């Protein structure tokens, strides 16, 4: 099947959506589908326009200047869809490129699908733009109204979006590479660079350092906990607009910058506990990465944690938004963070069952079904989940 896959983030950009979209494209191509990747050209990249990839124009996203949005007119995309003749157009990220791609596909009678990956409307609150939230949600609903199928990572998010008027929702889930993220990658030399003695627990956070990620909560909780546990170390992997301010506020924490691949896996495996305070993530790939690495997980009972973590069994959970409970949850995780603990062992076992191949095969099968139903006639508004 010929598929046009449209995304506004893709490697070499480093974020969960970019890495997940690249994995999906790789899977579809390996399965024998012909995939035309459409994305904005990143800074320093050469232009490209061939049967496999079109790098269109774009510009920096406000508040996220290292990321780019794509730009292409509906008319230009209609011409491209006629030339490429895709059976389906899939958009992985919301933005002007995605909206134009879906609109052009519908005008040409082509099947469409879209991912709902990011709660952009909820981000507004964290940038003192709360009044924008209903407008952003309305825009997202308008975009997803043009898709024959909308993929969401969890059943809870599907229910939330359905209540907000979104239709044709399909729960796709997420997976983890448990061969890459493995406790066996623990690195004593890396721990030594963190000034962590053999018995010192290391608390890890991985993610973008931005207001919507709530990283300040994890660092504040660590500061209070280390007052009674002087050996407790804190390592933060990632970058973003808050990094400089957080470093000034927490000079004893280790800010390790951005890491990917095996280097990132070593950082996970060399820690003991994981703090994930985000309340805006629709899933949070880092949750499964931490579980696969056998860490004592502490987070809110939402997104991926609500699906994969059982409080007190393979991790520790707090009621969403309860700041005091988050600190208590983190303390509970640290109390069970010694290497070889039952909590950490069960975390690893949980991740082993979250295999990417099954997730991607289900995604591929749903895409094929959407294309077949569009070819047979109009698709009803009933949910596909």
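Q: What amino acid sequence fits the structure above?
A:
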């Amino acid at each position: 099947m010929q598929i046009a896959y449209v995304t506004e983030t893709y490697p070499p950009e480093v974020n969960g959506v970019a890495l997940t979209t690249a994995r999906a494209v790789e899977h579809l191509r390996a399965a024998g589908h012909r995939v035309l990747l459409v994305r904005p050209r990143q800074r320093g990249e050469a232009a490209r326009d061939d049967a496999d990839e079109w790098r269109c124009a774009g510009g920096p996203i406000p508040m996220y200047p290292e990321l780019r949005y794509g730009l292409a007119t509906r008319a230009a995309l209609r011409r491209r869809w006629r030339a490429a003749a895709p059976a389906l157009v899939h958009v992985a990220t919301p933005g002007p490129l995605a909206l134009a791609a879906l609109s052009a596909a519908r005008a040409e009678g082509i099947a469409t699908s879209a991912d709902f990956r990011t709660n952009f409307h909820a981000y507004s609150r964290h940038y003192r733009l709360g009044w924008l939230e209903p407008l952003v949600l309305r825009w997202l609903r308008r975009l997803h109204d043009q898709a024959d199928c909308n993929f969401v990572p969890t059943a809870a998010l599907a229910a939330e979006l359905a209540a907000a008027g979104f239709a044709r929702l399909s729960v796709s889930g997420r997976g983890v590479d448990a061969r890459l993220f493995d406790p066996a990658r623990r690195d004593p030399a890396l721990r030594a660079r963190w000034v962590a003695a053999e018995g010192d627990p290391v608390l890890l956070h991985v993610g973008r350092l931005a207001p919507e990620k709530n990283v300040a909560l994890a660092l504040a909780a660590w500061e209070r906990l280390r007052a009674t546990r002087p050996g407790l170390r804190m390592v933060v992997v990632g970058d973003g607009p808050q990094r400089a301010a957080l470093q000034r506020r927490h000079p004893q924490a280790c800010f390790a910058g951005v890491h990917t691949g095996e280097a990132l896996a070593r950082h996970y495996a060399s820690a003991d506990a994981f703090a994930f305070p985000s309340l805006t993530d629709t899933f949070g790939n880092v949750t499964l990465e931490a579980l696969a690495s056998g860490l004592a997980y502490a987070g809110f009972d939402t997104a991926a944690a609500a699906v994969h973590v059982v409080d007190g069994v393979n991790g520790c959970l707090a009621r969403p938004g309860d700041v005091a409970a988050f600190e208590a949850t983190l303390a509970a995780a640290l109390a069970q963070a010694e290497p070889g603990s039952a909590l950490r062992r069960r975390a690893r076992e949980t991740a082993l069952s979250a295999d990417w191949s099954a997730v991607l095969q289900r995604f591929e099968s749903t895409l094929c079904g959407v294309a077949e139903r569009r070819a047979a006639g109009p698709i009803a508004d009933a949910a596909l989940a």
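Q: And what stands out in the fold?
A: The mean pLDDT is 91.
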